[in-house]
């Protein structure tokens, strides 16, 4: 019976290990998406700064009204794109946090099974030790009786 329980625990540990591996891959993927989103925001912000500099240079030379509206319209779109990217980054951060929590949960589950396995092995070793001691005591008792 103890052998069956350790086999079951071994299977559970393997399944938990597989779940931890999957959770780690999902976390890595979520972190990669977050990094990509942050890089994209940086590129948008850099482009926005460059565009603003171009606008300032052009405005110093004097702008026609329609060109001014075009600059302002495009600049508004850039600001909207940066805000949208910030929202996407927040979603990615929340996803990373969620994946990290799932990973920790899976790791706790795996650790619990490992602790149970250690306990089962310890109990099995103690039972075997008692059985061996009992056999040794019987052997010693028989040997003593045969001498008498």
Salient structural properties:
148 residues; mainly alpha; 2 helices; 97% helix; rod-shaped
Summarize the structure.
With 148 residues, the chain is an all-alpha fold. It contains two helices and no strands.
Report on this structure.
By secondary structure, the chain is mainly α. Helices cover 97% and strands 0% of the residues. It is built from 2 helices and no strands. It starts with a helix and ends with a helix.
Q: Rough shape?
A: rod-shaped
Poorly predicted residue ranges? none
Q: Helical amount among residues, as a percent range?
A: over 70%
The largest sheet is:
none
Radius of gyration: 34 Å
Number of strands: 0
Q: Topology as H/E string?
A: HH
Q: Number of helical runs?
A: 2
Layout of helices and strands:
Layout: H1 2-61, H2 65-147
